[in-house]
Design goal:
Layout (H helix, E strand, L loop, with lengths): L3 E5 L4 H12 L5 E4 L7 H7 L7 E4 L2 E4 L1 H11 L10 H26 L8 H9 L5 H25 L14 H17 L10 H11 L23 E2 L5 E2 L7 E6 L2 E5 L4 E5 L2 E5 L4
Parallel strand pairs: 1-2, 4-10
Antiparallel strand pairs: 1-3, 3-4, 5-6, 7-8, 8-9, 9-10
Helix pairs in contact: 1-3, 1-7, 4-6, 4-7
């Protein structure tokens, strides 16, 4: 069994980002297919209640949120890098792409292809987001969502106008992976000839290059009962609790009843033997 386990489902855009990231780094990984909607009893038992997709497990360390997952993969496996042209611009591009393109792409699918959604999907997402999801209102918003995506796709397209293969040069990186998955999501549901993709042939060629990144060789499914396990060598936290997480990079906040919590600028770590959960700061 490989050390890297990805808890995901096939149609998840953020899972696709991580899957291609694993492929870019040439990493073998084990696949655990999780339900698209709640309940997710095996996942939430593993994550301490976190329900979103994907989740990465490396031994007894559980990484929640795709941004945190990509940072950890880069830390553990720095070559080939997610940052072939440097970190700052790549992180900014990735943040922009996901914050501006994911929601319009999802809204278009919800409005135009409700037949592809699992039963109970909209109800599940409405409960999770604490807001009403109105199919009529979503349908009325489609022209505006298409216009939003056209504007963002045009910016991406301009980055490729000089003939470069990827957004920041000759090598793919984090910016490509973050910008790609909304494009992939639209292609999966509507095809390359549908609006707004039909107006950007150069962008579609770039998306094909990203999709062609070599995928991992190992995709086994471990048994659910063996998922939460300790790594062979563990570090000691500032409070004397053992964990595989590099606690030297995090400031300890408190420790009580066998639970230690620490934070850094980019993550919050909760450790309760034998598992560590890592989340982004706003979780």
């Amino acid at each position: 069994m490989t050390d890297i386990i990805l808890h995901h489902y096939e149609t998840s855009p953020y899972s696709e980002k991580v899957r291609i990231g694993l492929g870019l780094k040439g990493l073998a990984w084990a696949s655990v297919e999780i339900p698209v909607i709640m309940p997710k009893p095996h996942l939430t038992a593993l994550t301490g209640g976190y329900r979103k997709t994907p989740v990465l497990q490396i031994g007894a360390d559980i990484y929640c949120d795709s941004q945190l997952i990509m940072r950890e993969l880069e830390r553990r496996h720095p070559s080939p890098s997610f940052y072939p042209a440097g970190r700052g611009t790549a992180d900014a591009l990735a943040w922009w792409a996901e914050k501006t393109m994911f929601s319009p792409a999802v809204g278009i699918k919800f409005a135009k292809r409700p037949d592809l959604l699992p039963e109970g999907f909209l109800e599940d997402r409405a409960k999770f987001s604490a807001r009403n999801i109105d199919p009529v209102a979503m349908t009325a918003a489609v022209p505006y969502l298409l216009d939003q995506l056209r504007a963002h796709f045009d910016w991406l397209d301009q980055m490729l106008a000089d003939g470069r293969s990827f957004l920041q040069g000759s090598a793919a990186g984090l910016a490509d992976l973050a910008a790609y998955h909304p494009v992939w999501f639209l292609k999966q549901n509507f095809g390359s000839g549908a609006a707004p993709l039909d107006g950007f042939p150069r962008l579609l060629t770039w998306a094909e290059r990203v999709a062609d990144i070599v995928r991992p060789l190992t995709r086994e499914t471990p048994s659910a009962g063996n998922l939460a396990r300790q790594l062979p060598s563990l570090q000691t936290t500032p409070d004397g609790i053992q964990s595989s997480v590099n606690w030297s990079l995090r400031a300890p906040m408190r420790s009580s009843s066998g639970v230690a919590i620490a934070k850094s600028a980019t993550s919050v770590c909760i450790f309760r033997a034998p598992v560590s959960w890592l989340h982004p700061p706003n979780w």
